[in-house]
Amino acid sequence: MAFAMTDFDATRRLFDLPRGVIYLDGNSLGPLPRGVTERVHRTLCDEWGRMVITGWNRAGWIDMPRHLGDRIGTLIGAAPDTVVLGDTLSIKVYQALAAALDMRPDRRVILSDTGNFPSDLYMAQGLVKMLGDRHELRVVAPEDVARAMDGDLAVLMLTEVDYRTGRRHDMPALTAQAHDLGALAIWDLAHSAGALPVDVTAGKADFAVGCTYKYLNSGPGGPAFIYVAPDHADVATPALSGWLGHAAPFDFEPGYRAGAGIDRMRVGTPPILQLAALDAALNVWEDVDMADVRARSIELSERFIARVEAGCPDLTLASPRDPDRRGSQISFRFAHGYAVIQALIAEGVIGDFRAPDIMRFGITPLYLSHDDIDRATEILADIMQTRKWDQPVFHTRQTVT
Amino acid sequence: MAFAMTDFDATRRLFDLPRGVIYLDGNSLGPLPRGVTERVHRTLCDEWGRMVITGWNRAGWIDMPRHLGDRIGTLIGAAPDTVVLGDTLSIKVYQALAAALDMRPDRRVILSDTGNFPSDLYMAQGLVKMLGDRHELRVVAPEDVARAMDGDLAVLMLTEVDYRTGRRHDMPALTAQAHDLGALAIWDLAHSAGALPVDVTAGKADFAVGCTYKYLNSGPGGPAFIYVAPDHADVATPALSGWLGHAAPFDFEPGYRAGAGIDRMRVGTPPILQLAALDAALNVWEDVDMADVRARSIELSERFIARVEAGCPDLTLASPRDPDRRGSQISFRFAHGYAVIQALIAEGVIGDFRAPDIMRFGITPLYLSHDDIDRATEILADIMQTRKWDQPVFHTRQTVT
Q1: Interface pTM (ipTM) of the complex?
Q2: B214 an active-site residue?
Q3: Has domain B37-285 been given CATH number 3.40.50.150?
Q4: What is the value of pTM for the model shown?
Q5: Residue numbers in B near A18 (CB within 8 A)
Q6: Structural domain boundaries in chain A
Q7: Mean pLDDT of chain B
Q8: Are B123 and B188 in contact (CB under 8 A)?
Q9: Shortest CA distance from B48: residue in chain A
């Protein structure tokens, strides 16, 4: 790290972090970057308030999904004009999968794994039903993905980094295998974009989707993005054929004609307040080298694991021990993990819990220091050693954890 | 209007209207209500900034789509727990149509009209293709809808108020006719909700959808809403089966199980900044009686028509002359309508244009006065009488008009 170009003390100052809190949940919802509030205020007052409808042109609202797509493209190795923002990740998964299946009409298997985010699987289940149950959604254990691919494969649909364990798939290798079998690959980058170096071009992903409110810090409910490989962009049929994906949206023709390239993946009117927040949030990446982020993520993660394992013998590492096989989160298993997380939150250390027994801790170098890791692991060790978690108040379930 | 309860001078003060502008485009994008900026600021700083992930529970973010659904429900005659916010109107149209077709498996016709917003038709076209081209999307002239219904009808899918002409369908009568034939009815309320009294319960709509950024003033890209009649709520299959529509979204089960009632129409993570803006925007309705809004809308509209017809003989009324057959906008046809609208905007009167020749003027009593109508029609008459519109600068097309 001695020669790192990225100044992490400087990036930390770009966030308005809650006082008295060590925030280890940036893998679920990133914190508020400085400048976002001012930018959204400007969008509200100077744009919507003053320009009203004319803001679509004068403030450039109509182009924001494409403009921000290009900004995110630089973080995931996508060429200009191949990424667009909009909707939610679930909707973008549906679009990508529908388009991919349409490109492989003679194949019937969609392969995914149990490490995929459930909503991706749910959207696929809904799509399969819509398409008349002609397809099989094959869901295997993450370690069985490579050997579950065969000549029936239409689409490999995976999340690169497992939301529970942080386990990371080998995107280029699995994609190459899918391609060798004549299939297509869709990658969900929800826990990758902004977390580690991603290169959808070199990795030859056919489609990629992701969300912006985790490691990209766009705020609660920030829009999703979709990438379509340039070769497919004019071929992929948009199942959700909304007006802003039309070749001439403002001609109001009666029949749908898909727009050129990535534009056809647009659907309805984009959420301008959320896009404005995202635009300001992306400024934090301006002087950041993703290789530095990755190096520091591994350093902080290794420190976190070592200290938890030393201080909390009852916890079992759920993430891969090899840093190359992880994203940027560390998970531990414990039967009473829910209560431990509640006890941690009560002491200002925010992680989260995923059933049945996973405690998740996001490692986000842009705003986490070595001191944060040390302090968080001390508090965790104290909670475990004194069984502080074993109080009724920490066992009361809330809707979202 | 003598005994109207609603104080329209007071409601006008609830909006932060741009100075020097007469805004006749609230049917496209409502202006900024006072209180929205403060509310969004609070959501950014006090909720996201201070609570970060815990805002989903502590600030009630997770419940906003349902809470705001109930607030909108009161404006459209929907019972509590029958409306939910999310996504865009195009997505909600797709959900409603997919669910309705699934409830009528033996029928093959979707009937709509040329007055429907193109995106509704585009989404239907995409859905029909997805379902294997087993259905016919029959699109007739608005006046032919009633006689185009027959025993093949699966779903009647209409926008109550025509986005170009303001013509209004008779929702209860057409719905009753569809029901008599064993079909279902989906109503798009994009130009109805907040514009005139709507009663989806009395009108027996099976599904209704709408957007919030027009007459409900939620700001650019505000989320859409969907209503499902209580009888159908536990039967309708959600085609877009995202995690927040799951019966137990935070159990992260591998298989989708549709949630109870309207919850199943939720898809992905809701856009909290846009929902916060909507929540504040809905406060303007607190002391408003929709019958008063309707009476004043008709009064202002009649005044607008009379003055335009008196001052601009070259313009042809495109809206129905009978106020009962209109929504809350007035449209005129003119071959050079685009240039006239640009000339109007240059003089601070904001209306908009829809190809090929329609000039649209939204009549929004909450913030428009008699003086606004008089002044706008004077400026329009001057532009027409002096042919001010016939300058090259007014003929240059922009992306959004």
Answers
A1: 0.97
A2: yes
A3: no
A4: 0.97
A5: 49-52
A6: 8-31+289-395, 37-285
A7: 96
A8: no
A9: A32
